[in-house]
Every structure is written in C-alpha cells, then in structure tokens.
C-alpha cells in the first residue's frame, strides 16, 4: 500500500468542517469545485454508512466519474471514511483506494486539525510515482482550502 497522511490546521470549528465536508460534500463540491466537479448524486443509501455516491467531473479532470462507498461516518468523533469503488484512478494502476478524515479541536480550542489519510493498493507489479500521489494530495488540500474559505465567508453556514 502507498499513499499519504496530511494534517491541515483551520480556524473553523471541527463540527462545522465535518458537517460541510463529510455530510454535505455531495451538495457543496459542485459549487465550491465547479471547475472540476459537475455533479454528485447519492445513488444508494441515506447518507450514512453504506451510502454510495457517484461524482461526475468536468473536462478539466482526466476521468469522467467515480463511485465511492461510505465506510465510516462517526458524528461523535468527527471521522469519515470511504472506499473508491469505480472510476477515477482505478483501473490500469490501482486496485483500490481508501480515504479517511478525522477532525479534532486545535490545541488553542479556536479551530481544528484535519488529519487525512489516502491509501492506494496498486496492482501487482505497479509502483505509483511520488508525482501521482502528490497530485492527489494537492487536490485534497485545494478542496479543503475551498471549503474553509466558504465557511469563513459564510459564518452562519453549518453553525
């Protein structure tokens, strides 16, 4: 397995980031990341564990869709995880991919720390390059920053 773990600090309370970034990402992604995401739909489930979402991308992304399943949705501990089932980077090089996010209060209590781990299980004999892994890391950081900017500009959203 290969991938990355990243910790990002934010001035936003962890509960707000969790509500917007985990529970409502299907609504916000097409708005906040409209250059890349055209549509997200829940195709199975009620938003909880086991829910399957399909994301459709714009021409700015090298693939058209992804299909992911929610594996963990812990509202009390502010933890969210999913598995990529189809599309996106799966296929030629990757057999499976997982994503896990945990939000905690920052040490000063005024914001939060977002810990994210993305794991990739390459196909036998395939090694992912640092550039490939870094591209996903940078995409996550960009999406996180867009969400943070939205919540800072809209202090009553997800409060």
TrEMBL record:
One of its GO terms (cellular component) is cytoplasm. Pfam families: Bet_v_1. GO terms for biological process: abscisic acid-activated signaling pathway; defense response. GO terms for molecular function: abscisic acid binding; protein phosphatase inhibitor activity; signaling receptor activity. InterPro entries: Bet_v_I/MLP, Bet_v_I_allergen, Plant_def-hormone_signal, START-like_dom_sf. Residues 6-153 form the Bet v I/Major latex protein domain. Belongs to the BetVI family. This is Bet v I/Major latex protein domain-containing protein.
């Amino acid at each position: 397995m290969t991938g990355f773990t990243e910790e990002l600090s934010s001035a936003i309370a962890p509960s707000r980031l969790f509500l917007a970034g985990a529970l409502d990402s299907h609504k916000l992604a097409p708005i906040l990341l409209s250059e890349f995401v055209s549509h997200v739909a829940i195709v199975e489930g009620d938003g909880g564990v086991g829910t399957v979402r399909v994301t459709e991308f714009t021409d700015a992304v090298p693939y058209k869709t992804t299909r992911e399943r929610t594996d963990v949705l812990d509202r009390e501990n502010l933890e969210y995880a999913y598995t990529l089932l189809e599309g996106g980077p799966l296929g030629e090089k990757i057999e499976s991919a997982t994503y896990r996010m945990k939000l905690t209060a920052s040490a000063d209590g005024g914001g939060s720390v977002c810990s994210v781990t993305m794991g990739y299980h390459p196909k036998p004999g395939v090694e992912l390059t640092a550039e490939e892994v870094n591209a996903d890391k940078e995409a996550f950081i960009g999406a996180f920053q867009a969400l943070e900017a939205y919540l800072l500009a809209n202090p009553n959203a997800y409060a």
